[in-house]
Amino acid sequence: GQLNESMDHGGVGPYELGMEHCEKFEISETSVNRGPEKIRPECFELLRVLGKGGYGKVFQVRKVTGANTGKIFAMKVLKK
């Protein structure tokens, strides 16, 4: 889906998002695609922009299909 520019809040500190208690783990092909479920961008709903940089943006997203439905994640989207 298209990102609505009104969702763009720029860089936000972790305490403003209440993320100080979030679990952190490394994302890799094997950690994301464990088992038969294939994770694709369509599996997530974009919630807000967490940060921007020269190589892309980081979005706060909610999983909407499969395992972990409803869980909040960060998704880094790189420019081609």
TrEMBL record:
PROSITE patterns xrefs: PROTEIN_KINASE_ATP, PROTEIN_KINASE_DOM
Span of domain Protein kinase: 44-80
Superkingdom assignment: Eukaryota
GO molecular function, a single term: ATP binding
Record's keyword terms, sorted: ATP-binding, Nucleotide-binding
Binding site for ATP: 76
Record's protein name: Protein kinase domain-containing protein
The species this protein was found in: Balaenoptera physalus (Fin whale)
